[in-house]
Write a structure and sequence with these properties.
The chain is built from 12 helices and 6 strands. It is α+β, with helices and mostly antiparallel strands. It has 2 domains: about 190 residues, Peptidase C12, ubiquitin carboxyl-terminal hydrolase (Ubiquitin C-terminal Hydrolase UCH-l3); about 45 residues. The chain starts with a helix and ends in a 12-residue tail after the last helix. The C terminus is likely disordered. One of its GO terms (molecular function) is cysteine-type deubiquitinase activity. Keywords: Hydrolase, Protease, Thiol protease, Ubl conjugation pathway. Belongs to the peptidase C12 family.
Length: about 300
């Protein structure tokens, strides 16, 4: 939340704010937002899409910034006002820019490219948690919105709202301080104990900066980050149920081969006894035993 820290990442194309969706007060209003003002004209002139599909607010927030950075001669300057999004997204923007905002949202869900990229970051869920459906407790819901300077104005791009929200005049140099003021006021509307927020900055690829500065160490760090991200994403999406089943079968086969059925039965009985002991201690408020991880 430090404007100077954000300014050091220049050029900053925008920020994406994650917060807990409020359920105790109305979130949307057709008349006036809680802060700022609806700019219905901007909903036509800028690339703004209403969110029509669930669980896509993060992707939509990213696109709300990317699709509006195509003006090399805007007040933001050529560095912060222009991003080469490539032919596919450029064609998509040109195809949808004449559509109403609600139809742009539908076009997002119908874009095979955007859908495939979005789903490539979805985690694997081999089991459905039935307790979530029967417990009666409502799950916390979180939402992403984007803030970006466009044409000399600070806009909040939220697909659940009827139009972009203007937060007043804002140059690229003023953006770090002005957006932090807006976000701080927004956070202050929550209880002081609420800390579940996240803020992401959309900046130019840091590898480009490393190359411009001739910083080989920084370049290697950035390359390593991307290798780690790729591995983590593959790990998150992988379904380990089959792997776990094969390991279990291998362990059982090893026990039977080396100790016979008696050793196998004793192994199972010992494990069952320990599990019952831990369960009883848990009910009584005890700490229970430490679980040993053997090789």
């Amino acid at each position: 939340m430090d404007p100077d820290a954000l300014a050091q990442l220049h050029p900053v194309y925008g920020v994406i704010f994650l917060f807990k969706y409020p359920t105790d007060v109305p979130y949307t209003s057709a008349d006036k937002p809680l802060e700022g003002s609806f700019d219905h004209e901007a909903a036509v002139n800028l690339w703004f899409a209403n969110q029509t599909i669930q669980n896509a607010c993060g992707t939509q927030a990213l696109l709300s910034v990317l699709m509006n950075k195509h003006n090399k001669d805007g007040p933001e300057g050529p560095e912060a006002g222009y991003i080469d999004v490539g032919d596919a997204l450029r064609d998509f923007r040109e195809f949808t820019e004449s559509l109403p905002s609600e139809f742009r949202g539908e076009a997002l869900s119908n874009s095979e490219l955007i859908r495939d990229v979005h789903n490539s970051f979805a985690k694997s869920s081999p089991f459905a948690d039935e307790t979530q459906r029967t417990s009666g407790d409502s799950e916390d819901v979180y939402h992403f919105v984007a803030y970006t300077p466009i044409g000399g104005t600070l806009y909040e791009m939220d697909g659940l709202q009827p139009a972009p929200i203007s937060h007043g005049a804002c140059s690229q140099e003023q953006f770090p301080a002005k957006v932090m003021d807006v976000l701080q006021r927004r956070i202050n509307r929550y209880d002081a104990t609420e800390i579940r927020f996240n803020l992401l900055a959309m900046v130019r690829d840091m590898r480009i900066r490393a190359k411009d500065f001739g910083d080989a160490e920084m370049l290697e760090r950035e390359e390593k980050k991307r290798r780690d991200w790729q591995f983590e994403n593959a790990l998150r999406r992988h379904n380990f149920v089959g792997f776990a089943g094969e390991v279990l079968k291998g362990v059982v086969s090893h026990k039977l081969k080396n100790g016979g059925e008696e050793a196998y039965k004793k192994w199972v009985d010992d494990a069952t006894t320990k599990m019952k002991q831990r369960s009883e201690q848990k009910k009584m408020g005890g700490a229970g035993e430490d679980v040993e991880m053997g090789g």
